[in-house]
């Protein structure tokens, strides 16, 4: 895998400093991800504290671009200086692939944690960013729901498994398959925030209705109340009349949950996923990357109300 590098301009932008300050701290023609992380520590340039947060990307309707969005979201949070763990819950391993890895290359997945009681530290893998780690997935995960069925406290297996490591991260991001089962129920019970990518079409309303009914039942039956629900319109094409009408309907029906920022339809975003790269690695100047950046800022603004200070997260040793 090709080494990750940043230009001086990109490095200065990531750190939020001017070129002169960058040269004064470390003058190089290119900067590795480790260089950027070391400079954060040296210059004390950590982002504002908003965590630890556990956020679930989920929609029962498939084809909404959820995984492309969640992996780019997690990648960008790490580039901004947050400690991030991305958990791939889909047996197809698409989030793993979007980070540039193949799930079949990893002998252990979350199945070993939830069913075989292995410590989650045994399945956490390092990415190309020093402060972004991930739990891979592959086809072995397709048996998780069935294996969890007879277990006591089966809804809380994921929440309990994360207790040993969650303090290490600012964000734990779950990428879930477009279905409802025990694994997604575990993710809902572990999450504080729910991010729902939708398309601007009227078929999305049925999936949203079902999802909100499920969330309500969790509140009533299991006493779990989410802190935030964020609806994100993905792959939006403003030239389509139907898309604009669907967006207006979403604003009318879900005004308290719908985020103002839409993710515009972007060919580069689709290409990035096919190449196994987050959009910020593939084309950080694309409109898709710009939209995800604004989306992150809006989410951070909502969850960061009342938070103060910074939280310094150090990568675990290999």
CATH fold annotation of the largest domain: Rossmann fold
Structural category is alpha/beta
Q: State the helicity in percent bands.
A: 40-55%
CATH superfamily of the largest domain: P-loop containing nucleotide triphosphate hydrolases
What's the number of helices? 14
The fraction of residues in strands falls at 5-15%
| Spatial arrangement of strands, main beta sheet | 5-6-4-7-3-8-9
Question: Which helices and strands occur, and which strands form pairs?
Answer:
Layout: E1 5-6, H1 8-15, H2 19-25, E2 31-32, H3 33-43, E3 53-57, H4 66-79, E4 84-88, H5 94-98, H6 110-114, E5 125-126, E6 132-135, H7 144-148, H8 157-162, E7 171-175, H9 182-190, E8 193-199, H10 204-222, E9 228-234, H11 241-253, H12 267-274, H13 279-282, H14 287-303
Helix pairs in contact: 4-14
